[in-house]
């Protein structure tokens, strides 16, 4: 037996142990990024779920890009105007992505007080706002709000939030 072999074996074992620890940490991180993974999935099932989740996100991103292009084609000043020349109702889109709720709202520049009201509705319904952004393009204001359930066990009642936000939007219209 060669003395060099005995020292390389523990080194290989240590390297393998470190590799397994890194892989375990990466799998744990991957599982935390996928919505609706309360139950323990096997590694192949977790990878399949991650792959399908990425595909869904890409599809959603493409839809949003197409929608943005359509709005840009319509022009900055005329996108919110109806056939009679007046402003149309604001556009509200609510997307339930498992544990995350995305609220997108497009309004005219004269409807700036809605941002606070949307926050209030989300908080009253048990949602915690994770991130929010507001941008103005021409005569339009774009709101994007991402929220998650304040209590994971209870969750978020999307239909109730949708109803309340639609009532709010029509009230301000």
For the record, what CATH class of the domain at 78-172 applies?
A: Alpha Beta
**SSE order, as H and E?**
HHEEHEEH
The percent range for helix content is 40-55%
How many H/I helices? 4
- Specify the overall morphology: elongated
Q: How many E strands?
A: 4
Structure description:
- With 173 residues, this protein is of the alpha+beta class.
- It has a domain at 78-172: ACT domain (Alpha-Beta Plaits), CATH 3.30.70.
- The chain is built from 4 helices and 4 strands.
- A 4-stranded antiparallel beta sheet has the order 1-2-4-3, with helices on one face.
- The longest helix is centred in the middle third of the chain and has 32 residues, at 43-74.
- It is elongated and about 80 Å long.
- 10% of the residues are buried.
- Residues 47-81 form a coiled coil.
- Its main location: nucleus.
- Residues 7-57 form the BHLH domain.
Please outline the helices and strands.
Elements: H1 3-33, H2 43-74, E1 91-97, E2 100-108, H3 114-124, E3 127-137, E4 140-149, H4 158-172
Antiparallel strand pairs: 1-2, 2-4, 3-4
Helix pairs in contact: 3-4
Task: Summarize this entry quickly.
Helix content is 51%, strand content 21%. With 173 residues, it is an alpha+beta fold.
Short key terms for the protein model shown above:
four-stranded antiparallel beta sheet; alpha+beta; 173 residues; elongated; nucleus; Alpha-Beta Plaits
